[in-house]
Specification:
Number of strands: 3
Structural class: alpha+beta
Strand order of the largest sheet: 1-3-2
Radius of gyration: 12 Å
Strand content: 15-25%
Shape: globular
Helix content: 55-70%
Largest sheet: 3 strands, antiparallel
Number of helices: 4
Distance between the termini: 38 Å
Amino acid sequence: MDSELSDVHFLTVAEVAELMRVSKMTVYRMVHAGDLPAVKFGRSYRVPESAVQDAIAGIRGEERA
């Protein structure tokens, strides 16, 4: 289990917003709606980088259809 966690790279909400080219509020809305998994540390959220990649891939797939 420790090796699995060491492979996970977490991003801040600001980093996710920059990667997805949306506002931080949009990222918060996605997290609260359950569209983007996140872990809450104190008062801030961290999003696994793989979840961001999956979300972007899903959006690209929808655009092609």
